[in-house]
Amino acid sequence: LVTNGTRLGSWALELQAAGLSSLTLSLDAASAETFLSVRGGDIDPVLRGLDAARTVGLQVRLNSVISRRNLHEVPGLIEVARHYGTTLKLLDLVNLAAPAGDPEWFADFVPFPEVRAALQALGATYEGLESTPGGVGAPLLSFRMPDGLQVVMKDSLYGLFFAPSCRACAKY
Fold first, then answer.
1. Dihedral of alpha carbons 108, 113, 114, 118, sign
2. 27-63: b (≥16 Cβ within 10 Å) or e
């Protein structure tokens, strides 16, 4: 299950009782101001949902799409992951207008070597590649913070491994 978390607080127990054991929660900012600017809306219900999910025992991975608008939030996102006992997955801003591009995308895109340098400045150590489910998609670069927190990065420029059925897709 992938969720924006806005209603997770009222559903976490029911989802767990129905057999859900893990989920991915999209969280692109740790501060209310940046969350409002990037996502539009209030971060509080999302954090309450995250808390409810962890309280009922669900495993959670936070997904954060990193752009120029929220790159400064990476330390805060690490703190949120640490506080709630989750892992953090940083994703690059995908260019859906490929190959022509979009001027707004080019202005907002952050090359992941820059994100990697920011992680390493915070004390992260590169561990290697984490396997992708079924071997499909971009490999995940795994980092470990000094306290053991795992942070992974999905850098689409690193390499793509799509199933043969996707070779006909125009975007790949």
1. positive
2. bbbbeeebbeebbeeebebbbbbbebbbeeebebbbb
Closest listed residue to residue 86, CA positions, set 113, 59, 116:
59
Give the model confidence (pLDDT) of 47-67 as tens digits.
999 999 999 999 999 999 999
Please state, in angstroms and rounded to a whole number, the distance separating the CA atoms of residues 84 and 106. 33
Instruction: Record the pTM.
Output: 0.86
Helix (H) or strand (E) holding 77: helix 74-84
Q: What is the chain's Cα-based Rg? A: 16
Instruction: For 69-98, write each residue's pLDDT tens digit.
Output: 999 999 999 999 999 999 999 998 876 665
